[in-house]
Amino acid sequence: MTEAGSTGHPAAEGAAYTGRIGLWTKLAYGFGSIAYGVKNNGFDYFLLTFYGLVVGLDERLVGLAILIALVFDAISDPLVGYISDNFRSRWGRRHPFMYAAAIPVTLSYFLLWNPPFEWSQTALFWYLTGLSVIIRTFVTFYETPSTALAAEMTQDYDERTSLLSYRYFFGWTGGNAMAVLMWGVLLVASAEFGPDPRANLDGWRTFGIVGSGLIMLAILMSAIGTHHLIPNLRAPPPKRSLTPVRIFIEIWETLANRSFAALFIGALFSAVASGISAALAFVILPLFWGFSGGEIFVWTLFVFVSAAAAFAITPVVAKRLGKKRAAITFGFLGFWVAPLPILLRLAGMMPENGDPILFPILLVVNTVDLTFIIAFSILYSSMIADLVEHSEIKTARRSEGLFAAAITFIRKSVQGFGVLGAGFIIWLADFPEPESKLKPISADQIPAEAMWRFGAYYAPTLLVLWTAMIVAISFYHIDRKAHENNLRTLADGPRSDTKPGGEF
């Protein structure tokens, strides 16, 4: 018996593996998410800071560039998902796309962090826009098929959560390793650049080189490490005549159900809020809270603690509460805690900047809060995976790629709408312009009124968006019993009088 399923060819037999996945396969599969983590960390946490405060591009133009790339994603994500569901090759449906993405993503990510500083605002805008479109498109070529493998590798309700815990653990730790490198090795240690390390251009260039190398390594190691599963993965559906209209109809048939709509709408609200929070993190930490480079370095180190804690607790809590209840619980705890320190600061109820108790308080709050947020993300992806069988009963097609595309699209919406919103928050707060492209503004240059406006726009925006997310996800209907009913229905063969578990 192979690790991925029974002897023979499960895909040809219409079978699927429902047991446990071997450790090495989980590690290889999870390791690939480092590529997305590195790319996502750069876009979420550093892109607005780099192009707005270092390169000198208007923050609204940065947000607009990422939003334009998001429009391309709205087209490419479902198409790549659909094509990979129906693709035929000797390497299966998924792996050709994963291999093909490695070089374009690596090269374009390197160029993103090495821009021509002397170019005009217009030229820099189009430079950023073009690279963002290329990066996001080829990330889709890798991330969507790779994510789709989770629903193919196992149908077990709990094992999917365990498998995706590895994926999110590596994604967060890989991405955060770049943040630690940025603040700890490249920037904080560069004493000649003073208390604000963002002006170290050599550091930014090295950030691009190291990040690009990690992306290449992660994609290739994951693709190679899961290559042995190809004979045991699902085969594409029978060949049929496909027209643009037919493709659109099949995409609509697959995605048109209530549980998917609940997750999609809820996660879209969450992605926008998370994107705003991430894009402004390195404005909030040194400027709003007045943290030093050393404190920010410690802050980034504790993200590893959050990732490890989420990796450990998520499968356990999900097994006890079920995925939906666990996701709502983690979402409520994580997303409501995050803005509270800023609201308390606006009300004059937090220690002043420089008070030795301020940093430990916020460090503990952030570590716990981020654990809940990562746990929520794991469960969201696992809930999406359970939609595959739910949809197969109705459409008679396996559509892992399309549902994976929904995950990819939502996660990349963080950079689109989130960075756009973050740019407008800075603009509405009326921060002063930097003296030059190579001399970012410091905390003492920002008037107290502008900083108060920043917090007043930032915290309520997050609360509204995250509350909307929790309400939307409450309409998801696939629990453990419904999923097991779906598996039994598929095992017994299609019946016209049988409805899927949950509701369409």
Features:
Growth Hormone, Chain: A, disordered C terminus, about 500 residues, disordered N terminus, about 75% helix
Can you walk me through this structure?
- There is one protein chain.
- This protein is mainly alpha-helical and 504 residues long.
- It has one domain: MFS general substrate transporter like domains (Growth Hormone, Chain: A), CATH 1.20.1250.
- 73% of the residues lie in helices and 0% in strands.
- It has 19 helices and no strands.
- The protein has helices at residues 10-13, 23-31, 33-55, 59-86, 95-112, 121-153, 157-187, 201-225, 244-255, 258-279, 281-288, 293-321, 323-337, 340-346, 358-385, 387-395, 400-429, 448-473, 480-492.
- Helix 3 (33-55) runs parallel beside helix 7 (157-187).
- The longest helix has 33 residues, at 121-153.
- It is globular.
- The two termini are 37 Å apart.
- Residues 1-18 and 494-504 have low confidence and may be disordered.
What's the SSE blueprint?
Layout: H1 10-13, H2 23-31, H3 33-55, H4 59-86, H5 95-112, H6 121-153, H7 157-187, H8 201-225, H9 244-255, H10 258-279, H11 281-288, H12 293-321, H13 323-337, H14 340-346, H15 358-385, H16 387-395, H17 400-429, H18 448-473, H19 480-492
Helix pairs in contact: 2-7, 2-8, 3-7, 3-8, 3-10, 3-17, 4-6, 4-17, 5-6, 5-8, 6-17, 7-8, 7-12, 7-15, 9-16, 10-17, 10-18, 12-13, 12-15, 13-15, 13-18, 14-18, 16-19, 17-18
